[in-house]
Amino acid sequence: GSADAEYDVVVLGGGPGGYSAAFAAADQGLKTAIIERYATLGGVCLNVGCIPSKALLHNAAVIDEVKHLAANGIKFAEPEIDIDMLRGYKEKVIGKLTGGLAGMAKARKVDVIRGNAQFVSANHFEVAETTGTGSEETGNKKTVAFKNAIIAAGSRVTKLPFIPEDPRIVDSTGALELKGVPEKMLIIGGGIIGLEMGTVYSTLGARLDVVEMMDGLMQGADRDLVKVWQKMNEYRFDNIMLNTKTVGVEAKEDGIYVTFEGAKAPTEPQRYDLVLVAAGRQPNGLLIGADKAGVAVTERGFIEVDKQQRTNVPHIYAIGDIVGQPMLAHKAVHEGHVAAENCAGHKAFFDARVIPGVAYTDPEVAWVGVTEEIAKRDGIKITKSVFPWAASGRAIANGRDEGFTKLIFDAETGLIIGGGIVGTHAGDMIGEICLAIEMGCDAEDIGKTIHPHPTLGESIGMAAEVALGVCTDLP
Ligand code: FAD
């Protein structure tokens, strides 16, 4: 049929995967559009994910940090917190970044089409125009034709069926709205998102409980890293419930009553002022009419792709959360670049050896590549070397020497295949280990690279020197 507009590339979704793909396609000279239902670009990450959580976590970390100074003879009064101003700060941060994206789209002549999109064929989207701050439809519809499409429709919070609608029960988006600080808060799901939000609310004054089905918090990270975080953060929690299922949630006038099941679970329902449901996210693959384009979607809503990010329909690509784990912004961005290059006729592949993970808690926990857990599970022979921050001049000077840096080498080749850091700024440092893995470095490459002294980053060089049996003589 006749379309209202026609493009070389149409990207479905304006998150980090989508805008990165669109900008890269435009930079290749392709006529490109992004379809996004919300008023701003940036997707989950900029609007209700990575960025707002870090804006709040930064404030929380400063509050926590000045408390450490009491031991050095510097005492501050209890902070006076104006929650409206803090929320305003977070909004300002989001606004700067989403505004920047709008400018970048304009500069590249990428059309941003506002609306809910559905495939209607293998070459057309139907877009129901949306308006306002949400995604209310105006009733206007148009058809957008494409030569190539890139699906970047992301993921949404997994809803637990037995949880009622109540303003005192929120998901991460609701928690980021920061309507107030509860006295007693339950986090359902002890993963990164739940623990980051818990850190913010706890520093602002809430007491925390956390419930997790697995046998430890922050799954994916090695237990030795998590242990350091947990020891430093136990004071925030009244109860850390592991191997425990949440089986009932009841909204009563005086609070939300939650029932648990597990060997060590409380037998009586527990009362909370706020419940954060952070029990995972699910992909949006089943909500976009993919079948009309012949694109295969799994039962759970994931879209399978090859190394070129192609779906089973060769001119339709998919990237980001919708193609699978790990659901992380930096993975989405790289996949977006690969898809865009292929749209432009280049042969590009997603060929990253490793994708780092970071919990931006206090201290931060960061890991990449082969962990000790993975090595054990897969029977990979490794050697590890650990540099404790108790021997780092900078960490001691900072009064934060609880952390450590760990490098993991392939026992046969001696090449670095993984690493983990727990400590302040761990997330900012893990990138060096990623680079070392991508470049195929061994301990000598890392240990003989001169790192600046005294820095926390130096601990990576020192961990490599430990592996080489060199005395690390810089305190
Ligand atoms: P999304 O960001 O989900 O974007 C998809 C976009 O598509 C959305 O804007 C949506 O409105 C739009 N869309 C979907 N369907 C349609 C349709 N039919 N029509 C029109 N538009 C549509 N990751 C990190 O790497 N670091 C972090 O620190 C981090 N923190 C996080 C904190 C929280 C609280 C949460 C929830 C997530 C966090 N993440 C973090 C994960 C990160 O946000 C996601 O991995 C990332 O946003 C995925 O990008 P994406 O492009 O695949 O999809």
Tell the overall outline: globular
Q: What percent of the residues sit in helical stretches (DSSP H or I)?
A: 25-40%
- Supply Rg: 24 Å
Q: Which small-molecule ligands are present, each listed once? A: flavin-adenine dinucleotide
Q: Helices and strands: which structural class?
A: alpha/beta
Strand segment count: 21
Q: Stretches where pLDDT falls below 50 for ≥5 residues?
A: none
Short characterization:
The chain has 475 residues and is α/β, with parallel strands linked by helices.
Report on the architecture of this protein.
The chain is α/β, with parallel strands linked by helices. The protein contains 14 helices and 21 strands. The chain has a five-stranded mixed barrel with strand order 1-2-3-4-5. Helix 1 runs parallel beside helix 9, helix 3 packs across helix 4 and helix 3 (50-68) crosses helix 6 (192-203). The longest helix has 25 residues, at 83-107. The model has no long low-confidence stretch (mean pLDDT 97). Residues 13-18, 35-38, 43-45, 49-50, 53, 116-117, 152-155, 172, 193, 284, 288, 320-321, 327-330, 332, 360 line the site of flavin-adenine dinucleotide. Flavin-adenine dinucleotide is lined by residues 13-18, 35-38, 43-45, 49-50, 53, 116-117, 152-155, 172, 193, 284, 288, 320-321, 327-330, 332, 360. Its EC number is 1.8.1.4. Keywords: Disulfide bond, FAD, Flavoprotein, Lipoyl, NAD, Oxidoreductase, Redox-active center. Its cofactor is (R)-lipoate; FAD. GO terms for molecular function: dihydrolipoyl dehydrogenase (NADH) activity.
